[in-house]
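Support request from a user on the community tier.

User writes: "When I paste my structure tokens into the form, the page sometimes reloads and wipes my input. The last time it worked, I copied everything first. Here is what I submitted, just in case something in the input itself triggers the reload:"
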């Protein structure tokens, strides 16, 4: 099977897995992916989604953004901006490791929630603009129908009020 040229994310993952002293099977189990699928990713035969990369990053205890950069999902500058808060949390010596992990999880959940909210807001805005146009067309159609009906009533009234020519 030929490589799909998915960058060096597979090689990077293999290196990280080996540094963590995990077998392919152990990482696959920890990340919740199948062993063959992970093997294909490492060999460059499959391109993992952002969700799979996040699961792998969590299992390897590395930044998901680092994997996103390796996979070409995120550019290096965006990654640097995103890593400022986690780096500050990790560098804070006044809190313990458990507290750092809790803060990082909260921070990440807020980022996901806001990203989801932004997408939902855009969809709502797009739908609203589409619905406004639809409502305007419906109102125009109703006005035209009402005018036609009024014209028909006027003609009927006129015919009823005319004396019978017989």
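"...and here is what came back when it finally went through:"
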């Amino acid at each position: 099977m030929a490589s799909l040229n998915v960058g060096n994310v597979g090689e990077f993952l293999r290196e990280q897995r080996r540094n963590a002293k995990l077998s392919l099977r152990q990482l696959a189990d920890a990340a919740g992916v199948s062993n063959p699928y992970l093997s294909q990713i490492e060999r460059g035969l499959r391109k993992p989604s952002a969700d799979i990369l996040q699961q792998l990053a969590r299992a390897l205890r590395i930044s998901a953004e680092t994997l996103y950069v390796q996979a070409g999902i995120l550019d290096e500058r965006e990654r640097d901006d995103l890593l400022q808060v986690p780096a500050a949390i990790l560098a804070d010596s006044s809190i313990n490791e458990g507290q750092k992990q809790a803060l990082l999880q909260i921070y990440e959940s807020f980022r996901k929630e806001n990203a989801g909210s932004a997408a939902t807001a855009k969809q709502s805005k797009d739908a609203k603009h589409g619905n406004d146009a639809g409502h305007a067309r419906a109102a125009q159609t109703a006005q035209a129908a009402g005018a036609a009906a009024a014209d028909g009533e006027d003609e009927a009234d006129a015919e009823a009020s005319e004396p019978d020519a017989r």
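Agent notes: The reload is a front-end session timeout and is unrelated to the input. Helices lie at 9-19, 24-31, 35-42, 50-60, 64-71, 76-82, 84-91, 97-161. Residues 1-6, 132-139 have pLDDT under 50 and may be disordered. Escalated to web team.
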